[in-house]
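We modelled the chain as a single entity of 277 amino acids. Its sequence is:
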Amino acid sequence: MPIKDVFLPLVGQPRGPALVAIEKCVAVAADLGARITALALEEEVFERPEVMLPYVRDSEHASPEAGNMRQLLNAFTDAASRANIRAQSRSGRVPADQIGAILAEHARFSDLTLVPVRPHDSRTEGVVEAFLFGSGRPLLLCPEHLADELRPEFENVMIAWDHSARAARAVGDALPILRAATSVHVVTVAEDKTGAVVQSGTALVDHLREHGIYASFETAKGGGRSIGKVLGSWANSHGIDAIVMGAYHHSRLNEIVWGGVTKTVIGQPPCWVMISY
């Protein structure tokens, strides 16, 4: 099924990298030929009523969050206008502890959610986890720290294949992107290229061929490094535009306590990352 309807959450501060990430997300939606919907949310903070003098204007008492939200929306509107894409936007004020759940609920009505990611930011990680566990839709992570150099076209794509059901789900979700790619690499991190590893990777390559996708299969050795770092290094050394992967192969508690590939990638994506749960 083609990707025709994408969702872009707008939260946080309108720093330079965040604004560039918004523009790149809009460009991806345009390249896909999809409509894009943005939802900007600010935290609803209780403030003690103040006695205001008659000549004091309301704008002077506007919350910093409201100003941030307006700047994010303006950046989105400007980017959508330049890209000549069908776009719509919404905004609202909600309690801080409900932002993730509300965003995930809105994401259920899209084919793909684009998420700008600040490196090693707890708020961003919380929003991403809310989408993973609450939306039922795939995510496309946009690393803000690399936004200037990211390309909106995914010509060179890597599938992080660990033989799991979630990785298979990610491949299915990414089929429209994989079909449009010039080259697709199936990569499994393994110290030994065993028969089982080769059989699984070869089977996926064969499956993709039935969809008109001609992929290669390779293994990468960890050498004592975390799988997330190995994938990031492989992606960087091979000029990968986007990684396709499944989330949380181990239990969520184990990932949170010990790190794990999902948490490593969410913490600092090495490029665009399409992730499914």
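As a brief sanity check on the tokenised model: The mean pLDDT is 89. The chain is about 40% helix and 20% strand.
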